[in-house]
Records
---
Amino acid sequence: MRIPQILKFERKKNLAGQGADQNKSGGKSRNKGAKGHLNIDLAKGENYSEDQSIQGLSELYSPEEVGESHIYDIIDILLDMGKLTPEEHACVRAEQSAKPDSDVETIMLKMGLLTNSPDDILIAKAGLYGQEFVHIEPEKVEKEAFAKLGMDFIRSSCICPIAIEDNVLVAATSEPANVFAIEDAKRQTRMELRVVVCSAKDIAAVCDWFKKQEEKVDYNVDEIISDMTEVEVVQDKEELSEDLEKMAGQSPVIKFVNYLISTAINEGASDIHIEPKDKFTRVRYRIDGVLFEKMQPPLKMHPAIVSRIKIMSNLDISERRLPQDGKISVIVGNRAIDLRVSTLPTNHGEKVVIRILDSKTALRGLEQLGMEPAVMEAFRRQIDLPHGILLVTGPTGSGKSTTLYSALCQMNGNELNISTVEDPVEYELDFCNQVQVSEKIGLDFATALRSLLRQDPDIIMIGEIRDNQTARIAVQAALTGHLVLSTLHTNDAASSITRLVNIGIDSYLIAASLNAALAQRLVRRICPDCKRIYKVPENMRKYVEKAGVKPEELFIGAGCDKCRGSGYAGRIGIYELLVIDDTFRDMINKDSSVSNMRRVFHEIKQPSLFDDGIRKVKRGLTTIEEVLRVTEVYGQNENEVFINEN
Ligand SMILES: [Zn+2]
């Protein structure tokens, strides 16, 4: 670490001036550059008591020097460094006298001075405080030193321990003026501190690097698996539960299961599948709707892994011939995540699927769902309606619940009584009354709904309309002045009407109560890290050209480490919104067959799922293959409109 030339400036004089000012301000107000040429950020020292701060300052400043008239500041140093011309220096000085409330850094920024060399300002600051300016390389930071302060503190106060030299902690800061943070670091580490100056960017890089290391350290999967083979396994099919419990409690097994869960969460998986095969156990993660094989631990470990998961989710480890389901709550990276565990006996042993309910990925604002502006506007209007039924349709895993939750989040939970009946309650919303259906005790959708309607509701969300009774109550509720949100398993918006008829609801009631149906699918988003233009294969060209897209303008993900070679990262929704207007109501009353409903939908020229998908293809968000995969081929031209009739 090289000490720059500027250190020869007489720093005590400058510091004395600041010390005097600082003492006056007493650590209570933000006094940035108000008097003299102070540049001390007091905002960060809020937790400090006056006594502590003054005591801290006394160690930094020499009281006998107080009262020196000339105050050096960073622009003087920058002038001496040759980074500012005398003219620029004079300009800044003049501006500063004119506006004593603004600090020199802001003034220089406004004048466009040194904007391309932020390091120079830091070097000048370091000089001002008699400190060394350094560049830190994350790999060279001593782990032991870094661990002296918490990561959050390091990030928020921009002070980062980098080494320990002769019992003195060397800490780099990007805010050398923030004496309170420095004092706080001293107090926390109970060590003497030598402060050096670095850029905020460097500190962020160090934190990121250590965070990555942390994630790696615990989990060397090969090591864990080789450790696991050491675990004593009882091979007998009729193992006793004590043996299983013992096995499951061995640390390599615990480590392995923890690894499975935490990596799945970190990689954004929605499900973990642990399947016993003939010769090995297969572990797969579902990421963005597609399963990826993650690893193949030895088959003899399977009972231990399953038992461990069962213990975590309070299941009966001795029962291995019947399916079971349970729940685990884990904390990963400071957030609580619910896991739903289900076991299923198969010919090679028990298969376990863990569903990850991560509220962070599931609860989104409406604007994050990927609706086109026009669809979004229309959908918002639907949410604001006082009564009627709003349906979201699509197969399992098409993001219906996320859309409904987002819609509920738009509503005013303080002024409205929002109640839900769900199976299961996936995410907890604190502004709603959520009821969990429980068939075991006779609380089915219909029963729960009836009770809920006696509770003066405004908005009712029904997890799914599956049967006649639930559908009837939903219609009744909608017709008696409530807004009902629910989901249906249908392929497109138009066939939701036919589905309701098939469930046994009269067409005239549907016509009277249904406001709108939104069909949706999730398509995978092209990975931004490996996105490139690609040549559309011949068999795809017809779809692309029919949709009016130039085949030369399409993108694809080539596959990279970040996307596990898949070319996709994350998902986005595609939507088809059918708003029931008077024309449509008449049609429902006359003929509610799927084909007729689809024809009318086509005639009113609403963009279909496929059209919406194509818009996203055009914008380079997804690929034509993805859109075809999820939409099934219908709707893109007259001949193919009715292909998908069921
Ligand atoms: Zn990629």
---
Amino acid sequence: MTAAPMTPAPNAALARQMADAIRMLAVDAVEQAKSGHPGAPMGMAEIAEVLWNRHLRHNPADPHWPDRDRFVLSNGHGSMLIYALLNLTGYKLPMDELRRFRQLHSLTPGHPEVGITPGVETTTGPLGQGLANAVGMALSEKLLATEFNRETAGEKLAIVDHFTYVFMGDGCLMEGISHEVCSLAGTLRLSKLIAFYDDNGISIDGHVEGWFTDDTPARFAAYGWNVIAAVDGHDTAAIDTAVRAAKAQAVLPDGKPTIICCKTVIGKGSPNKAGTHDVHGAALGTAEVAATRASLGWAGAPFEIPTEITAAWDARPRGAAMQSQWQARFDRYRAHFPAEAQAFQRRMKGELPEAWSDTLQAVFAGIIAKPDAIATRKASQNALDAIAPLVPEFFGGSADLTGSNLTNFKGCKIAGRDTWGNHLSYGVREFGMAAMMNGMALHGGHLPYGGTFLTFSDYSRNAIRMAALMRQRVIHVFTHDSIGLGEDGPTHQSVEHVPSLRIIPGLDVWRPADGLETAVAWAHAIERRDGPSALALSRQNLPQVASDSALVEQIRRGGYVLADAPNPRAVIIATGSEVSLAMAARKLLADAGIAVRVVSMPCTNVFDRQDMAWQDAVLPPALPAVAVEAAHPDFWRKYVGRAGAVIGIASFGESAPAKDLYAHFGITAEAVVKAVTDRVR
Ligand SMILES: Cc1ncc(C[n+]2csc(CCOP(=O)(O)OP(=O)(O)O)c2C)c(N)n1
């Protein structure tokens, strides 16, 4: 790792033209689409040339090379900046795709989306979250480097050794999440994180003096960052010096993350609109596009880049050379440390260890053998104790509620500034934690999970949504899931959370009833490779209801018949803490001569993905249905229909012991009995 650039600086005239190529691609693509944000790409063009052309270690031919530098465009509205860079440096993003900017199914969506455009590391657009993803990526890099890098025979075999670069604007820095994650990045000394602040003084409403007057350098110095202030963001030599300084201090023992504060002019190059908010998020218009071409001296037609500029931008030859150097190092590493090399590759691919399935069966068998009346949050910790030794890629944590969320497991190590670990106290930073976990999942090598109270999932909600949109395997441990938490009262009692989380497309929300369902929920969340999961867990003890290994496969289907009767006359559907209540109602009904079936539905999302035959077998359409869940009732209508009944809570909770609250809100076996009886008469 060296502070020196990877490639020498181009001569000044060429450097300018390379930056102008970005400008004009942004201008022309936004003009063609008649929508988009030309201002930021135009203002950051020189910064982009210095970073991407001179410093970034990447190989356009292999966007997944594990040790590439990561680049995040946190001001994702400036998407044409990254599309221009990817095209110019030689990624599989042909010019035709830039012509189709923002069109249906193009590789150039309005904001950068991971999984769509080769070379895009994360989906950005919700301001502040890209920065948080970058902090998570830098954390992953630091942890993996500590875990895997070795020294042998005097040779440093650093197979993980890269920087994470992030571009951000005023918007990202105004967002509260930037405080959460930058504060933590400073504390953890994530010194290979280098952020470029596009300080152009403009956001959508105009000049930011009216709403954003922070002393950003002082703010970041207070976080413990290395601050490089007052860099002219159009002076490539000054930018280059700043990047070298940031890289040089990154390797110091007390290295810090760096922010390079760049003074820029938004829309630079546009003679009449530069420096104004007009250029932030709208096409320049035919006349101003022509004026911009003239003022830059740009002769090329739209989407035409002169060959000498294309050649100068092409990063493929040096990218291939950098990757093959790394590959040679990795091969030597593998020769000395075959097991570590294999584990590293497995983890970066997101695959589970070979022993996973067999050991898992033993875990389930152990739970079934020892039924226990425990809270599902405790059952979750038990599951972690059993599963964690199998998955060294686990990286747990909690937003300052470790003892309540029980996210720590036997033998876990607390991660700190200078200590490797696999459990992090994120501090009271729910949103930051969730977005950092997304960054870790995107980086690869870790399977992140983190805990807080279910009610505070609202704080993290947009990052949960982003995990789902990006199809990332991230696991949220949400404990204290209902009025069942008792005396803390309505501020802490979830009502609408489980139902509203269930409607985030791609998120699996589990509300398990007991130890076995909890372990299956964990297994499912770990095994799924295409999206996040949330576990809603109880604070209060619950009896074990599922105690047969044959049920494991059924639980995996999200909803199953827990207790049946010959010719049932109704179905009671329940989740989590209300499953035992449903079982009590079933007994009362049986005593009254009414046979009912109880369906436990720990994950409606997974149940909904089953074929209709399974769904109808579990919930026969002809039978009346009553759902019971200590949450907002509306969600259950799609299962019980208008003729069915839902016993839930459509108001906020109250502060009282849990038992009193269940009685007060009428979530009782008697209420279920009445609802069923009314429907079978
Ligand atoms: C969380 C969030 N809120 C609001 C927006 C809408 N938005 C997009 S860009 C922007 C202003 C950003 O200002 P700045 O970062 O200074 O970008 P610049 O004007 O320099 O391009 C806003 C409010 C968003 N994308 N994300």
---
Amino acid sequence: MKHEQVLLDSDIVLDYLLERRELNPLWETLPLYLIQHGIPYCLAAHQLVIIQSVYERESGQKSFLAHPETRQAWDRFVGAAVPLKTPAPIDWNHPLARHDLADYLTESAARAADSIIITRNQDFTVLSERCLSPEKFLAEHDPDAQPPVPFLDLKAPHIELRAELEAAQDRVINSGWLILGQEVAAFEREFAAYCEAEHCIGVGNGLEALHLILRAFGIGAGHEVIVPSNTYIATWLAVTQAGATPIPVEPDERTYNLDPARIEAAITPRTKAILPVHLYGQPADMDPINAIAARHGLKVIEDAAQAHGARYKGRRTGGLGHAAGFSFYPGKNLGALGDGGAVVTNDSQLADTLRVLRNYGSRVKYHNEVQGYNSRLDELQAAFLREKLKRLDDWNARRQAIAARYLAHLSPLPPGEGLGVRAS
Ligand SMILES: Cc1ncc(COP(=O)(O)O)c(C=O)c1O
């Protein structure tokens, strides 16, 4: 069995640092096994203090981190551990809390991280189902086992970013400001800069981002909006919720995206906008779409819900039309830990209207200028998104490398039986 993440009890770490062969025959084997197989192992904050004080007591070495030799062992083993928070809530009636507070805290940290614990402590093993002895762990753990690859693994990126996400959550809790505060303002600046555009307005989700753009442009009853026939339902719903009519246009068979060659035939005197979707992260062919829109005096609204960071002719999606709607639904390339969305635009007037529309039509509390909506990106989600945005380019590159492997190793379909989709 393969364990996603293990937490090492302090005794295991001390066995290694103090070379306690007689107590633990696997004192060196287990740490080396973890390091050599790249198995992530964690330590919670309270353990570091315990490890330090026991080490100093048993070795008689005060300030041991100042000694180059012990420092090396510490950096190599303890320094490479994934740091975990020791959760704050304490249930004093829990059997472990009554038995041994340190074990209780270790178990709480493991529970919060959904991790097993490797320990030599038999009492601990009896009181917690999460515990495994080093022998049992090594016997059970097969590094060559191939676990099934989940279609979408939302745990892995958050485990990788746990420390940053927890720090982000603390910033919000400590600020006491939960709606439209510094985190949303900072994320809006950072995401606009990332998209190489002037403005970003954080909203409730991707559907509302598109809907609010249409509303802000005054598109509604009696108007038509050109949409791809092949897209997620939200593209169409944004149009119908605004009171306008979606006019479907068939895709280009090479890209699955809106085919510019078929757009003009669908334009009528009621058409107000074209809503291309950058499906699966592949930008729609924006130059001809923008040229058609300019000829007919139409707005171009990008549905960029699936295309954070994608580039069209060197330019980032989000700044390729009059405005763009993004989704931060958890499964997206840039996903929140809940719902979220944003509009990106270079149009200052539109940005101003959207800031009013998303917030009950109000600029000043209790002064409601227009019939607005409650559609705001939460401070907490903005704080998480700021951390994840720093990784977006790396993660997109990783997705492309994986896609390239699939494309290289899957046999091609016989001619005429598939669409020739590109990897990026
Ligand atoms: C193409 C497209 N447009 C719009 C949306 C709507 O985003 P949300 O789910 O955040 O409302 C999504 C995703 O769900 C999408 O894939």
